[in-house]
From TrEMBL:
The protein's name: AAA family ATPase
Keywords: Coiled coil, Membrane, Transmembrane, Transmembrane helix
TM stretches of this protein: 394-427
Keyword match Amino-acid biosynthesis: no
Pfam families referenced in this protein's UniProt entry, alphabetically: AAA_27
Organism domain of life: Bacteria
InterPro entries: P-loop_NTPase, YhaN_AAA
Coiled coil: 230-314, 484-558, 610-658
Keyword Coiled coil: yes
Gene3D superfamilies (alphabetical): P-loop containing nucleotide triphosphate hydrolases (3.40.50.300)
Residues covered by the YhaN AAA domain: 1-211
Length: 832
């Protein structure tokens, strides 16, 4: 499986973050400490195998409940199969109230939801612990190795091939530790040591108490001697019983041997290809899924209404929506224009009220008005006031001169006469001027009366005051008023035309929808939207039907192709159908079981197999009969010895009935009981520790040699060729480039870590055909120097040929050396 995309919804410090991996072989994530690298590693593991919410145990920190109070927790991973044929999406989400605490997992294969087993069957249904132990390299797990002693580190390396070796080693050490607490060879405080010492003390106390019972001691000696005799006879009987048991075992093995012969007759070769059978099962599964999909598509097609409605008219109506909007805009503009024209007319009447009487005049009447106005006499001005003033001047001057003349005529004679004459002359001139003025004023008044009469006639005829009338301005504004009226009429006509168009469109829409539609823009627009929705619905239904039909056709074709593939596989297996293939599979299992039974019986019989081939059943019965007689005689002797011993015991009990002796015996019995119980517990812990060690030896010996070839290559790369081989003879040793061997316990810790690193990668290499998942390396090279980092670069490129490798690092040198554009984390932000 190759990881293609990491999509984090909410996890730890991340929210809504997506990583699209550029390569399916080697990808690098770069960022400072606390930037989110380990968070991403834990996210990948937990999406695969379940969240760790405090109560779950883990070899490294995995509690990444979102820092912000957001929900849900989780995200998804997108994998592509190694051959690129399928794409799997695993989405795991956890929200408050999820009792499983592991999150709800949804698995999709090529976009279709499938059972979880479809994915996990591809990786042999491993669990999170196996993935962490085998595919994750980080400081915590490496620290578990570096914190061990050299001997413990050797064990971890040796037992790497065994599943759950770390837990078993810990369990073994716990049992050994418990056994050490119970007994030590030179200890005093452990329970067994203490009870052994107490038992000795109790015996000494009993002996001291019985010192006064000499008879008891003598009798006890006899009792001991008789007991030894009994034990000797029992030993003889035990040997006889052991011999009998051995013969009985051979007798039983005769039956097993006969079973072995029968089974060997049943063994036969079965031509069965497991890979083809698995492919056939996969094809059958795909076929069932396709069949379900086809049935679902047919149901969906059945549910779709068969709409063959002609949408041409409806589409034409929808296409008129822009025109309707244009009419609406024009209608609003016309209404606005009508209001404006009305205001302008009212403004003209307000500014030029003289046009109102002329509104009904035609062109001839206007022409007559102009002629009558032009024929009006001009207005005659009144007599100038200055003439009256001049007349008064002459009168005044004449009076002055006359008065002066009368005054000075006596004194000055001629001068007075001259002044008086001048006065009279002025008076005559004044009188003459006054008469002329009166005549002129009378003529002007007559003209004014005539002009006023004509103007009054003009006003009565036209209703206009000719004195204040500006005929040109009035006629100009009258023309403007008539233009406004004409524009208003045109505007009203346009409104009527728009209303007619809208009414026609409303009728057409009403006929299409089969429901009444009012003749206003809003109602018609709404109705057109309903028509559009109806058309969209019909078209969507038609498109969906076409899509479903195409999908159905493709699925049926795929199903047919799967059937052809299945027939090909059946032909290769020489079976007619899957039932026959299943029978062939069961027969192969039966043969495998028979062969296993044969091998098991051979191993069980072991060295006795050759003896059983030559064994005579009658001779065996004779030997058993002879042993039975010997055992019967030995049993009789033991019975006699036991009776004698019982009699001695009765005598001892009669002698040892004092309180002190009884208490001493009781104390000794209690101590012996406690000693036996503690010894059993000690032996149980010791046996469990030994059994676990032996089990690990067996598991490692089965898998470890298979890892050696790949591990040697990786170890050579990691050490720059300083070590070229790994030898597993009596002890695990490594071979230097000069051919010398070196035990692991003498390696430096760094080299031992490299060996452990190489062996883990070799283990991954061994299982790649069954379990191929991304290798996650989280800053596991922190303690590597530059030289070792250069070696690790070669190894990573070698490993990435078969397994996808994701490196999470804060080392810029490693990023530069790998020459890969990294996916970068930014420290201190919610999203890296």
């Amino acid at each position: 499986m190759r990881l293609k995309q990491i999509k984090i919804i909410n996890f730890g410090q991340f929210s809504n973050k997506t990583f699209d991996l550029p390569s399916d072989q080697l990808d690098v994530f770069f960022g400072a400490n606390e930037a989110g690298k380990s968070t991403t590693v834990a996210f990948i593991k937990q999406i695969l195998f379940g969240f760790h919410l405090r109560s779950n145990s883990s070899p490294f920190f995995e509690d990444y409940t979102p820092l912000a109070h957001v929900s849900p927790m989780g995200g998804s991973l997108v994998f592509t199969a190694a051959d690129g044929e399928y794409e799997y999406e695993l989405e795991r989400l956890y929200a408050k109230g999820d009792k499983t605490k592991c999150g709800i997992l949804t698995v999709k294969k090529d976009g279709q939801v499938v059972p979880e087993s479809v994915f996990f069957d591809q990786i042999q249904n491993i669990d999170g612990s196996f993935y962490a132990d085998s595919f994750i390299f980080n400081q915590e797990m490496l620290g578990q190795v570096t914190s061990l002693s050299q001997a413990d580190l050797l064990e971890r390396i040796y037992y790497l091939g065994a599943a759950n070796s770390s837990q078993l080693l810990q369990l073994r050490d716990d049992f050994a530790k418990d056994a050490g607490k119970l007994f030590k060879k030179t200890g005093k405080k452990p329970e067994v040591n203490r009870l052994l010492k107490q038992m000795t003390d109790d015996r000494e106390h009993l002996t001291a108490t019985q010192a006064e019972f000499s008879d008891y001691e003598q009798l006890d000696q006899k009792f001991s001697a008789q007991k030894e005799i009994l034990q000797e006879k029992q030993s003889i009987l035990a040997k006889l019983q052991k011999q009998e048991q051995s013969l009985r075992d051979l007798q039983k093995e005769l039956g097993n041997y006969q079973n072995l012969l029968d089974l060997q007759k049943q063994v036969k070769d079965v031509a069965f290809d497991g890979e083809n059978y698995q492919r056939a099962q996969d094809i059958m599964s795909q076929g069932r899924n396709l069949q379900k999909t086809i049935e679902s598509l047919k149901e969906q097609l059945t549910e779709l209404t068969d709409s063959s409605e002609d949408l041409t008219a409806a589409k034409e109506l929808i296409q008129q929506k822009p025109q309707l909007l244009q009419w609406q805009a024009e209608y609003k503009a016309c209404l606005q224009k009508g209001k404006q024209l009305k205001q302008e007319k009212e403004q003209l009447l307000t500014l030029t009220p003289d046009i109102e009487p002329l509104l009904g005049y035609d062109q001839a009447q206007i022409k007559q008005l102009q002629n009558d106005y032009l024929a009006l006499p001009k207005q005659v001005d009144s007599a100038p006031q200055v003439n009256n003033t001049n007349n008064k001047f002459w009168y005044a001057a004449g009076a002055v001169f006359a008065v002066i003349g009368l005054i000075i005529i006596i004194t000055m004679g001629m001068v007075g006469v001259a002044a008086l004459s001048a006065g009279f002359i002025f008076l005559i001139i004044g009188y003459s001027k006054a008469n002329q003025q009166k005549a002129s004023n009378a003529s002007i008044l007559q003209k004014q009366q005539l002009a006023q009469s004509k103007r009054e006639d003009f006003k009565q005829k036209y209703g206009l005051n000719s004195d204040t009338l500006d005929l040109n301005n009035v006629l100009t504004n009258l023309g403007q008023y008539h233009l406004k009226e004409s524009a208003e009429a045109d505007n009203n006509e346009q409104i009527n035309e728009i209303n007619q168009e809208v009414a026609q469109l409303s009728t057409a829409v009403q006929n299409t929808l089969k429901q009444p539609v009012e003749n206003d823009f809003t109602a018609v627009l709404t109705a057109l939207d309903e028509v559009a929705n109806h058309v969209d619905s019909i078209q969507a239904s038609q498109q969906k039907k076409a899509s479903l039909t195409a999908s159905l056709k493709q699925d049926e074709q795929d199903l047919k192709e799967l059937g052809l593939k299945l027939k090909t596989i059946f032909a290769q297996a020489n079976v007619e159908n899957m039932a026959g293939y299943d029978e062939l599979y069961q027969e192969s299992l039966r043969q495998a079981k028979i062969k296993t039974q044969v091998n098991t019986l051979k191993e069980s019989l072991g060295q006795d197999l050759a003896q059983l081939k030559e064994l005579n059943a009658s001779e065996l019965l004779q030997k058993l009969h002879k042993l039975d007689q010997q055992m019967e005689a030995a049993t009789s002797e033991i019975s006699t010895a036991q009776q004698e011993l019982a009699q001695l015991q009765v005598k001892l009990n009669n002698l040892a009935d004092s309180t002190a002796v009884f208490q001493a015996k009781q104390d000794l019995a209690n101590t012996e009981t406690n000693f036996i119980n503690s010894s059993k517990e000690y032996l149980a812990d010791l046996l469990a520790s030994t059994w676990i060690s032996r089990s690990l030896d067996i598991a490692s010996n089965e898998r470890f040699p298979k890892m050696i070839a790949a591990a040697q290559e990786y170890f050579a790369l990691l050490t720059g060729g300083r070590y070229t081989g790994i030898d597993l003879a009596k002890k695990l040793t490594v071979i230097r480039h000069d051919g010398k061997k070196r035990e692991v316990k003498y390696l430096s810790r760094g080299t031992a870590e490299q060996l452990y690193f190489a062996l883990k990668l070799a283990f991954i290499e061994q299982i790649k055909d069954k379990i191929n998942l991304p290798i996650l390396i989280d800053d596991s090279f922190v303690n590597f120097d530059d030289r070792r980092v250069s070696y690790i670069e070669k190894l990573l490129k070698r490993i990435s040929e078969n397994n996808q490798v994701l490196i999470f690092t804060a080392q810029e040198k490693l990023v530069d050396q790998l020459q890969i554009e990294p996916l970068t984390f930014t420290k201190g932000t919610q999203n890296a």
